[in-house]
Amino acid sequence: MTEVTDAGTRRPRPPAGLSAPRASAALMVAVCGLLFPAACAVGGEGIGAGSSATGMSSAIPRSSVTARSSRGAAAEPEAVNTILTATVAGVDVYPTPMSTWPASRLSNPNEAGAPRVFLVTARLPGWWQVLLPIWPNGSRGWIRDDQVRASTTAYHLQVVRGAHQLRLYRGNTLISLFVVAVGTTDTPTPGGRYYLTELLRPRNPTGPYGPFAFGLSGFSTSLASFEGHAPIIGLHGTDQPHTLGRDVSHGCIRLSNSDITWLAGMLPLGTPVDIVA
């Protein structure tokens, strides 16, 4: 990390009517498994949609851990993002605020056992438009504000694939740089806006996923499945630090174990992740 001191299984598809633009190991397995080879195929009960694997412990139950409550908060820095955490067992997703019936319902906790969270993209009275953790990447829908609790975070991440960098911002200020490995030409890390959906703790902290693994809301665009699980994108550590700075994964984003540990203690679920060229 560099401190900056100057300022087979089908991927989930969107319900009919929704616009297109996800704390347990099974989930992580699906995500990383897709992007990385055997090393990224996480096991346990955490990041892969509805999958069950071995190697990951259950999701760490943290919602907006470092996020601030949106109610009565002090003046926020610029570039603050709103995160929603479900307060009901199932969150109804509507195509529009005018829709009479929901197009789908997303469970809470999610498939990995983590709190169901969403990243807000727009707001209307009584409604939130959010990114959805489903295929295709960038899908959006509307949810009612009586089914969620809002909080904010000034943090966001940017993955610059060509530079093999992960950049951490607080507001508009770049505060840290990390060297990462990304996907190969055949199994690229897909570009777009995503968010952190769960935080997993692998059973073997010195294994291919390191001590921590975040699941993202996006999926591989080149793989329909990975070892029978949904190909979810993961952000995790590695037991092969020599691969950092290279295009070597199945789509997941690898960091050093020290860097992922630092981020795991700082970032709330729902933190935005922009993946660019």
UniProtKB/TrEMBL annotation:
<protein>
    <submittedName>
        <fullName>ErfK/YbiS/YcfS/YnhG</fullName>
    </submittedName>
</protein>
<keyword id="KW-0133">Cell shape</keyword>
<keyword id="KW-0328">Glycosyltransferase</keyword>
<feature type="active site" description="Nucleophile">
    <location>
        <position position="252"/>
    </location>
</feature>
<comment type="similarity">
    <text>Belongs to the YkuD family.</text>
</comment>
<dbReference type="GO" id="GO:0018104">
    <property type="term" value="P:peptidoglycan-protein cross-linking"/>
</dbReference>
<dbReference type="GO" id="GO:0008360">
    <property type="term" value="P:regulation of cell shape"/>
</dbReference>
<keyword id="KW-0961">Cell wall biogenesis/degradation</keyword>
<comment type="pathway">
    <text>Cell wall biogenesis; peptidoglycan biosynthesis.</text>
</comment>
<keyword id="KW-0573">Peptidoglycan synthesis</keyword>
<dbReference type="InterPro" id="IPR050979">
    <property type="entry name" value="LD-transpeptidase"/>
</dbReference>
<feature type="domain" description="L,D-TPase catalytic">
    <location>
        <begin position="155"/>
        <end position="276"/>
    </location>
</feature>
<dbReference type="GO" id="GO:0016757">
    <property type="term" value="F:glycosyltransferase activity"/>
</dbReference>
<dbReference type="GO" id="GO:0071972">
    <property type="term" value="F:peptidoglycan L,D-transpeptidase activity"/>
</dbReference>
<dbReference type="Pfam" id="PF03734">
    <property type="entry name" value="YkuD"/>
</dbReference>
<keyword id="KW-0808">Transferase</keyword>
<dbReference type="GO" id="GO:0071555">
    <property type="term" value="P:cell wall organization"/>
</dbReference>
<keyword id="KW-0378">Hydrolase</keyword>
<feature type="active site" description="Proton donor/acceptor">
    <location>
        <position position="236"/>
    </location>
</feature>
<dbReference type="InterPro" id="IPR005490">
    <property type="entry name" value="LD_TPept_cat_dom"/>
</dbReference>
<dbReference type="InterPro" id="IPR038063">
    <property type="entry name" value="Transpep_catalytic_dom"/>
</dbReference>
<dbReference type="GO" id="GO:0005576">
    <property type="term" value="C:extracellular region"/>
</dbReference>
